[in-house]
Amino acid sequence: DIHSDNVRNSGRAHLRLRLKVSDYGQLSTLLGKLDALPGVSEARRLG
């Protein structure tokens, strides 16, 4: 699932993704890759 919200008057958007990963190592790798993308200010696990 992908959900997005625009952050008013900031030119930014919040994206919430629901993904299935096989283990915490894969999750860590994925978050690291997302965090390294240009324009991404934060990538983290919720819940």
What does this 3D model show about the protein?
The mean pLDDT is 93. The radius of gyration is 12 Å and the shape is globular. It has 1 helix and 2 strands. It has one domain. Helix content is 28%, strand content 26%.
Topology of this protein?
Blueprint: E1 2-7, E2 12-17, H1 24-36
Short description:
This protein has one helix and two strands.
Question: How many beta-strand runs?
Answer: 2
Radius of gyration computed on alpha carbons: 12 Å
Largest sheet: 2 strands, antiparallel
The percent range for strand residues is 25-35%
- N- to C-terminal distance: 16 Å
Low-confidence stretches: none
Mean pLDDT: 93
What would you call the shape? globular
Alpha-beta content class: alpha+beta
Q: What order do the SSEs take from the amino end to the carboxyl end, as H and E?
A: EEH
Number of helices, where a helix is a run of at least 4 consecutive DSSP H or I residues = 1
Structural domain count: 1
| DSSP helix fraction | 25-40%
Strand order of the largest sheet: 1-2
Question: What characteristics describe this protein?
Answer:
47 residues; alpha+beta; two-stranded antiparallel ribbon
